[in-house]
Specification:
This protein is an alpha/beta fold. The chain has helices at about 15-20, 25-45, 65-85, 85-90, 105-120, 135-150, 160-165, 210-220; strands spanning about 5-10, 50-60, 95-100, 125-135, 175-180, 200. The two termini are about 25 Å apart.
Length: about 230
Amino acid sequence: MKNLPLHIGIIVDGNRRWAREKGLPTFEGHRRGLALVKEVASWCFEKGIRFVSFYCFSTENWKRTKEEVDYLMNKIFKGSLFEKDLKYFHLHNIKILVSGRKKRLPVDLRKAIEKAVKLTENNNRGVVNFCLNYGGRIEIVDAVKKIIKKKIPSATINENLFRKNLYHPEIPDPDLIIRTAGEKRLSNFLLWQSAYAELYFIDKYWPDFTKEDLEEAIKDYSKRQRRYGK
């Protein structure tokens, strides 16, 4: 397929609704959603896509119950994603990055993230960027703080300089953003980077997302003309 996206951002939405509609505990929806993440990443890299960003936990998700947040932090992110699944990512030559304000994350989770990032730093099949405690507006605020701290003269500040102060400036802007579960908004995801991203929405809940759904999203993207104002 011609005109492939280099970077796909995915807003993984609908885990809890998927579980409720099947009469399952909410936690089962998160577990099934996580299991799909590494599969979708591999599908993307098989297609020749080099970067995939998953919106896993936003700065607003702390408003959920303590029981659910603790489960996500300890069982899903620490226990599964950055410990149990780390072997999978490393064996498949996948590099792991994490975007977001890490200081608020539990200490044990931060240590697991550091280990995963360090272990996979030289892997080159593709890059998975997990957005944890992430918010697009917060990222912009943090970039401004970095610039102020560096005492950079205002006359020299431009878009390129601003970009260099984002969480991971080495990751190219997303070409395509996919959101599941029927919602049609960005919800504070990669706001600066998504200025020219193509958007694709699907009604399916994230745990039901398939390889065929990914193929269809990429096929739809390949037909679009991106003019960038030309």
